[in-house]
Write a structure and sequence with these properties.
By secondary structure, the protein is mainly alpha-helical. It is built from twelve helices and no strands. The longest helix has 29 residues.
Length: about 300
């Protein structure tokens, strides 16, 4: 007998319900704040107008996750840090505050800057030691570049907000973010050719499900786009165009590839499977938001 819809619903964990609810709420808030920019944009600039929204929604999801999964997340905090549970909750609050600020475009110069600092601290305390302990572990390198990219995205948002207030020197934040994103895209592009069986976008250990059609073609195509766009971004050649196309492609993957993966995960009775699907979906959405933020912060001739 097939499970009824109510039965499936009640098998969804409280963590999945709370995190997805947070994402939906921030999505609605962000859509209201983005209405004017979206209406004034044309073509792919409509996608670029969604940069803040794509960046903010995952932060809300991860913020709530820090409360729902506090005991497991606190284990990721280095043992030498006192009050690990306190810092887990503190980061949750910080992520929720940053998500609201970025979605509504209020005080982004502070929320983006502080979020970037927080991510770079995570890299210094967790990702770099992880890479040094196992330099041949490709996943450790992928995670390091992912966290660096997220932090760079925050600084790009801050730099763009400060530039709009005629603050000199803020382009340095955008330049640093551009370099980090360019390097990450190139490395990820190479990984797509070395490990085409893994999910595209951020090439972590999860395998692309066999029921995804043309999965190898999608992976190779994503690798090409990452390499070409990453090279343009790193060399500052047609940066806006490259970031727009790359960010748009990653967003397409989020909707049409990671979306079905998320739905399949939520229909699974295992809470760990559900949480994995949520994390992959919103991590990739944040990567898209990071790249689109670079496109938004770059002049059309950049």
């Amino acid at each position: 007998m097939h499970p009824t819809i109510p039965a499936v619903f009640f098998e969804i964990s409280r963590t999945a319900v709370s995190t997805c609810t947070a994402g939906i709420v921030l999505l609605l808030i962000g859509l209201l704040a983005t209405t004017r920019d979206f209406a004034e944009a044309h073509g792919l600039d409509n996608v670029v107008a969604l940069a803040n929204l794509c960046f903010a929604v995952p932060l809300a999801v991860f913020g709530v996750e820090h409360f729902a999964e506090a005991k497991s997340i606190m284990e990721l905090v280095p043992a030498y840090v006192p009050g690990r549970l306190f810092w887990t909750y503190f980061v949750g609050v910080a992520l929720l505050a940053a998500s609201l600020s970025i979605a509504t475009k209020i005080h982004v110069r502070w929320s983006g800057l502080l979020f970037g600092i927080m991510m770079f601290l995570f890299v210094a305390m967790m990702d770099i030691p992880g890479v040094l302990s196992d330099r041949h572990n490709r996943i450790a390198w992928v995670l390091l570049l992912r966290e660096l990219s997220f932090g760079a995205g925050g600084w790009i948002l801050a730099g763009d907000a400060l530039a709009s207030r005629d603050r000199p020197g803020t382009s340095k934040l955008i330049t640093l973010g551009r370099i980090v994103i360019g390097i990450a895209a190139i490395v990820y592009g190479v990984q797509h050719f070395l490990h085409p069986e893994n999910v595209p976008g951020v090439p972590l250990e999860k395998l692309t499900p066999a029921w995804i059609p043309a999965r190898l073609l999608i992976d190779y195509l994503t690798g090409v786009i990452l390499l070409v766009a990453g090279g343009c971004i790193l060399l500052a050649r047609q940066t806006r165009t490259a970031a727009t196309y790359l960010g748009t492609w990653i967003l397409v993957l989020v909707v049409f590839l990671y979306g079905p993966i998320l739905i399949a995960a939520l229909l699974d009775p295992g809470p760990a499977v559900q949480l994995e699907g949520i994390n992959y979906f919103f991590d990739t959405l944040l990567f898209s938001g990071t790249i689109l933020a670079l496109a938004s912060a770059t002049p059309p001739a950049g």
